[in-house]
Design a protein that fits this description.
The protein is an alpha/beta fold. The chain contains 5 helices and 5 strands; from the N terminus they run αβαβαβαβαβ. This is Sulfur reduction protein DsrE.
Length: 139
């Protein structure tokens, strides 16, 4: 009798543990963040995001691109940025500007496209996303 109860308990625990692992795998998403210093790199980054979205299927999550560094002023060039913004929106990519870089290089934040999010510190934001499990690369 003890063997029977032990066996049932063991089977029940195994099934519960397996279902919990499967549920966690189903909930997990592939999230990505790219830190770049060059605006022209947005095109290949967004193309990569599109490819990953297709490859990931249902497990595709968030994709953010953080722009920082001395060339950040280029994001205020409306003509140059418009095509990247349209590509990003179509691909489900969030464009993020580093507030620290904007301040350091005296870029008027009101000229940053409204479609872009501004974070206080792009490098810190990158690390925070990595701590949440985002896959990260810096270019």
């Amino acid at each position: 009798m003890k063997k029977y109860i032990f066996s049932i308990t063991l089977v029940a625990l195994t099934m519960f543990g397996a279902s919990n692992v499967i549920a966690q795998q189903m909930e997990s998403k592939n999230n990505y963040v790219v830190l770049t210093k060059k605006v022209p790199q947005l095109k290949p980054i967004i193309l990569t995001a599109e490819a990953l979205k297709e490859e990931d299927g249902q497990s595709h999550g968030d994709f953010q691109v953080i722009i920082c560094g001395k060339d950040i002023g280029e994001i205020t060039e409306t003509e140059k940025m418009q095509k990247f913004i349209e590509m990003a929106e179509k691909a489900g990519v969030e464009l993020v500007a580093c507030g620290f870089s904007l301040n350091k290089f005296k870029i008027d934040k009101t000229k940053v496209p409204k479609e872009m999010k501004i974070v206080e510190n792009g490098i810190l934001h990158n690390f925070q996303l990595q701590n949440k499990g985002y896959k990260s690369i810096s270019l």
